[in-house]
């Protein structure tokens, strides 16, 4: 099987973050390697032998959850799988965005292609075809406990494979059967184990988590750029960023942030040496390496966790043909992702917290080193950028509520058989909200800092800061009188999340 140009091939090594983003964001087609096809076929043949031998396998010839003790005759096993999908598709709330849905489909496909789930190759081919044809199931966001997997979200995904439910195709919301018909795809008829294999896993929380993480990396870049710009606007000193200070507290992430800030401010005539009037800066400026560095350290841990999970097998039971074994276990439990997402929430919320404090220093005439009050030349008649700081304050306060760890909560289900759950999907959804809020807070700091440096004289700023200001002004014109900034802020925040500012910062590295 020769890959088509631009195709992401799922093979025995699985995916990396770049592959995930290509498929999810850029809608690159997907192909499954011959080796993975063989692993799927071999595992299915093993399951068929197990069933022919009359062995009892959870969820194949038994009921689910508390009903696992109910043994079913062979003629009921197919109906069991369809009933499972239909009964579990009871999610509520607004639907996930199409990028999250694509992420769920891709990750479910990867998990099944590992060859431990017992599905037929046609199930893999069906998922791949829907992904490549742009058939995106309508999946409500709420209803997963994050253990036994993301049952409700994945059931909504699976309904469309059966020609039921609803899907988005070509931007239109239509019945699942119609979407398959338009793409020339026959609905799937489930056999033993396949319904359970489709919905038992952590793919909703992991897809949301990966998308949140990819945006968070770009928010980190924006935080460093905004911090550097604010330092110039407030005539800050570079002494706290000296290599020696970082060396004696040797967190590599702290040193990396300090190094980036020194690079961003190289050649600036606006930063100052400490003097009689100001010996040292406030914490929001002086402690940037320590605060941003701690968040960067957290992001690296989150990345490691997500990279493991995106290629993991997370359904139950699992089949091991080489061992002649079927094991019931708990790989569907979302605790690793739940903890990582709570960590991500806190780390990114802190980037927003310190950014809002820097924004306050830019607009507050008592703190902004002689800049106009609220960055308005005619303050009093005009409010200038006063209310942008209010918006930041509102968002960081909301983040503090969202950052409460979801993973410490649990509630029993299925007659107390499933008595500890992760709430990982809730945590991932909250993390994604916090990242979006942080991008907005950073957009506001960039608008204010760029305006402040205009007052100081852009020609005195560093080369990289001048590039950042030029980029900001593509979306937000310099202040020329009071006006609404809502659209400007939203567009700039979206551009941050897309990685545009990260690309500007990467030039000349």
TrEMBL record:
Protein's UniProt keywords contain DNA repair: no
Keyword entries, A-Z: Cytoplasm, Histidine metabolism, Lyase
GO cellular component, one term: cytoplasm
UniProt-listed Gene3D superfamilies: Fumarase/aspartase (Central domain), Fumarase/aspartase (N-terminal domain)
Pfam short name (any one): Lyase_aromatic
SUPFAM superfamilies in UniProt: L-aspartase-like
Location of cross-link 5-imidazolinone (Ala-Gly): 147-149
GO molecular function: histidine ammonia-lyase activity
Catalytic activity as recorded in UniProt: L-histidine = trans-urocanate + NH4(+)
GO terms under biological process: L-histidine catabolic process
Post-translational modification: Contains an active site 4-methylidene-imidazol-5-one (MIO), which is formed autocatalytically by cyclization and dehydration of residues Ala-Ser-Gly.
Family, similarity comment: Belongs to the PAL/histidase family.
Name by which UniProt lists this protein: Histidine ammonia-lyase
Organism name: Alicyclobacillus acidoterrestris (strain ATCC 49025 / DSM 3922 / CIP 106132 / NCIMB 13137 / GD3B)
Gene: hutH
């Amino acid at each position: 099987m020769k890959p088509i140009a631009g195709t992401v091939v799922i093979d025995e090594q699985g995916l990396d973050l770049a592959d995930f983003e290509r498929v999810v964001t850029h809608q690159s087609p997907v192909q499954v390697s011959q080796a993975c096809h063989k692993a799927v076929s071999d595992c299915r043949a093993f399951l068929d032998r197990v069933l022919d031998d009359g062995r009892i396998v959870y969820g194949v010839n038994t009921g689910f959850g508390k009903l696992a003790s109910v043994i079913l005759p062979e003629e009921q096993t197919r109906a069991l799988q369809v009933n499972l999908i239909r009964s579990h598709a009871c999610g509520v709330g607004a639907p996930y965005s199409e990028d999250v849905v694509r992420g769920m489909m891709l990750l479910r496909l990867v998990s099944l292609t590992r060859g431990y789930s017992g599905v037929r190759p046609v199930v893999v081919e069906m998922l791949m075809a829907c992904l490549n044809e742009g058939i995106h199931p309508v999946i409500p966001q709420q209803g997963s406990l994050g253990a036994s997997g993301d049952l409700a979200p994945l059931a909504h995904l699976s309904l469309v494979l059966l020609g039921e439910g609803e899907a988005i195709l070509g931007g239109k919301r239509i019945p699942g059967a119609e979407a398959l018909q338009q793409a020339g795809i026959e609905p799937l008829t489930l056999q033993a184990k396949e319904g359970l294999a489709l919905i038992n896993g952590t793919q909703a929380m992991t897809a949301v988590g990966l998308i949140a993480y990819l945006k968070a990396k770009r928010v980190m870049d924006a935080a460093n750029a905004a911090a550097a710009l604010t330092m110039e606007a407030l005539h800050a000193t570079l002494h706290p960023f000296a290599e020696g200070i970082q060396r004696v507290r040797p967190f590599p992430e702290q040193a990396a942030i300090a190094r980036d800030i020194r690079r961003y401010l190289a050649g600036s005539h606006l930063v100052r040496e400490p003097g009689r009037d100001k010996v040292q800066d406030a914490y929001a400026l002086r402690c940037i390496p320590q605060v941003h560095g701690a968040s960067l350290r957290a992001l690296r841990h989150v990345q490691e966790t997500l990279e493991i999970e995106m290629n993991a097998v997370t359904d139950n039971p699992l089949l091991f043909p080489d061992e002649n074994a079927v094991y019931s276990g708990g790989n569907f439990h979302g605790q690793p992702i739940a903890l990582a997402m709570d960590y991500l929430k806190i780390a990114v919320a802190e980037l927003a917290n310190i950014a809002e404090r820097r924004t306050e220093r830019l607009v507050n005439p008592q703190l902004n080193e002689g800049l106009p009050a609220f960055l308005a030349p005619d303050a009093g008649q005009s409010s200038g950028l006063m209310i942008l700081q209010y918006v930041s304050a509102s968002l960081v306060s909301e983040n503090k509520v969202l950052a409460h760890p979801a993973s410490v909560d649990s509630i029993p289900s299925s007659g107390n058989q499933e008595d500890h759950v992760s709430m990982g999907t809730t945590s991932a959804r909250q993390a994604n909200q916090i990242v979006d809020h942080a991008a907005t807070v950073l957009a506001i700091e960039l608008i204010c800092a760029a305006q402040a440096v205009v007052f100081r004289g852009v020609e005195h700023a560093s080369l990289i800061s001048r590039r950042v200001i030029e980029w900001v002004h593509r979306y937000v014109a310099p202040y020329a009188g009071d006006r609404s900034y809502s659209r400007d802020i939203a567009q700039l925040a979206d551009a941050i999340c897309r990685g545009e500012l990260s690309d500007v910062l990467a030039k000349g590295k």
